[in-house]
Amino acid sequence: MNHSFFAKYGDVSLRPLNRDDTESLRVWRNNAENSRFLAPVPHITPEMQSLWFECYLEDEDYYVFAIDAEKLGFVGSVALYGFAPGEVEFGRALIGHPNARGRGIGYLACVLCLYIGFTKFDVNKIRAFVYKENHAAVGAYKKGGFRIVGERGGDEYVIEVKKDEFFEKHDFLKEVGL
Length: 178
Description:
- The protein is of the alpha+beta class.
- It has a single domain (about 5-175), classed as Aminopeptidase, CATH 3.40.630.30.
- It contains seven helices and eight strands.
- Strands 1-2-3-4-5-6-8-7 form an eight-stranded mixed beta sheet, with helices on both faces.
- Helix 4 (about 105-120) packs across helix 5.
- The radius of gyration is 15 Å and the shape is globular.
């Protein structure tokens, strides 16, 4: 979806994904270490990535955000998709830039994406699925407000966060005025 949503807190910001970001995403997604907790896909060629981006722009149910970090620039992406009445799915998060890992960027990107979901789309619940072994993501998502509500397929947690719980946990966002 070609959108115009932005959010920034500290040195991390979310902005619309653009065509210039797609080559970095392709390279990061093809890296086995980066994609071990993402849905398996075959090697992505530049042509495949270009086609994906064109299809993405036409998809009205899929909002991808580029994650930028000060001093590093574009470091990854995260998305909202699977809209249903009153809820949406969060996921497809990837911190691909090697210097961005372990710095809390994933946590801030999660919080900013949830903020956009709750304020711009007026949903009351955001759900996600995360591999149990993806300890970094599980920690960032819990810190962001998600709680485990079940399991899927034995190797994934079903997690969710409700709007009131999110803003109670992150009341500082009201002061920031994102």
